[in-house]
Fold these 2 entries.
Entry 1:
Amino acid sequence: MRRLRYHPRVRRLVQAVQLNPAHWIQPLFVHDKGAERRPIASMPGQFQLPLDQLPAAAQEAEELGLGGVILFGIPSEKGAQGRDALDENGVICRAVRRIKEATPDLLTITDLCFCEYTDHGHCGLLGHAGAQATVENDATLELLGKQAVLHAKAGADVIAPSGMMDGMVTMIRQALDAAGFAHLPIMSYSAKYSGPFYGPFREAAESTPRFGDRRSYQMDPAAAAEQALREVALDLAEGADIVMVKPALAYLDVIRQVRDQFPGVPLAAYNVSGEYSMVMAAAAAGWIDGQATIREILTSIHRAGADIIITYWAKEAARWFQPAN
Ligand code: PBG
């Protein structure tokens, strides 16, 4: 085997994974609380951007050749219904318009969910299942349809529902088609697992649930991997164009199974906030080589079978990216 490794060019010749920024998506947080760029303490290097600074961030993503950006909004006010998410002048709709005016070619994806907009921090309208407060599935679907059309009207290129409501893709597809957006793809967070890896994001998006957790709608990490395959099959039957596994690193097995089971289906993986923060903290402490670790992580997610990676390192990795030796 070592003859395949003895020379850098032999190694490069036999590589199967080619890193390419065109397949990476940079998440951007945009806030509606003034003109300052606000650092996110748990995600060093990431910021809540004011609307005015978005065009420059978008321009940079475009110049670096990224696959696109995915937007998360922090509204000026949150309420029980998440009204900002249903307002054509809400933070995300304005953000999309700003980006599309400045960089019309940059693929602009919108995360479609309510947790950033509700005061309770859950991903939809609250109701009850017995004595238990829970997110109402079907009432939330209605709202997701409306939210998707608003994003489309603002100029979003891809709609990415992340709330794990049953039937969300059907509802969004119907709403988009009826509003004249039959051409817009849906990238569904199909197999999204519940857990602590989203912790830093929730600080970033100010979306920590005020009570309870998301385990009645996001997947159980200990569920059979086949459950993820069922989620993907359902989303595809409902019309999803791109499916997603999330988080990435703890679920490389799931990524691989989805890849094998659904060949040819575009597959995204979300290299989530907790994965980012762990590496950034270890690198800052001098315990790990950050850049080399990021390269290995991106390589492993692609090798597991993801075509697309949503990663907070998209811009950074694209900056120092060189084909590996
Ligand atoms: C919204 C959403 C979340 C993430 C992406 N979209 C948070 C959550 O489900 O709590 C997490 C992304 C990350 O951790 O990087 N529902």
Entry 2:
Amino acid sequence: MRLRNVPGSREAIAESIFVVHDEEQMKGKWHELFGNDNPIHIEIGMGKGTFIIESARRNPNINYIGIEKYSSVLIRAIEKLEQEYNSSDERPLKNLFFIRMDAEYIENVFDKDEIDYIYLNFSDPWPKDRNAKRRLTSGRFLERYINIMKPSGRVAFKTDNNELFDFSVDSAKENNWNIHVLTRDLHNSEYNEGNIMTEYEKKFSGLGHKINLMIISY
Ligand code: SAM
């Protein structure tokens, strides 16, 4: 993703009611924040929030947490929610919060068995071999997911990048994950029903790219 500095984004994020600021203090207590025991789904690398905002809207009985590394990107998701907030007194989507952080530290933020589902949508490919461990489906990241997910949990990964997808399928197999869904053409598959398109998915499927999907559990 090309990043442009957005002046004032750090300050706006620091004040936003849609962002959790003391995320490490919340470890093991996320249900208290939502005020219920509903399942918790997270999206890592949520970008401008198109997918997670629509997911939260469609599924009020699921709690969502969107994680994004860059303020200049996260601010766009916050702006979408703020537009709705300005036109009504009620906070929109009480089942959705954002965190600005690098997912590398995810185990400091979520406890064992705290997360039910992890979405990785159009993750950065890190094409050079020496950066392979930064890919969100590398063995190092899969290990982190095991440490925060329930045994029944799932990781869903979508991308148009075939090299990254091949790497991710191999990574899942090498690390002994179970593959439940694997398609290289999501939009023309049985798994497309109810699919929520991400911003990148709209863009790249619009250019004729096929979308890969893998759903795995440990
Ligand atoms: N998921 C969105 C979509 O499908 O439209 C955005 C995809 S964009 C290519 C990848 C996003 O992941 C970027 O916004 C990037 O900043 C974020 N990201 C990459 N690595 C990350 C990490 N380690 N922790 C948190 N966010 C990360």
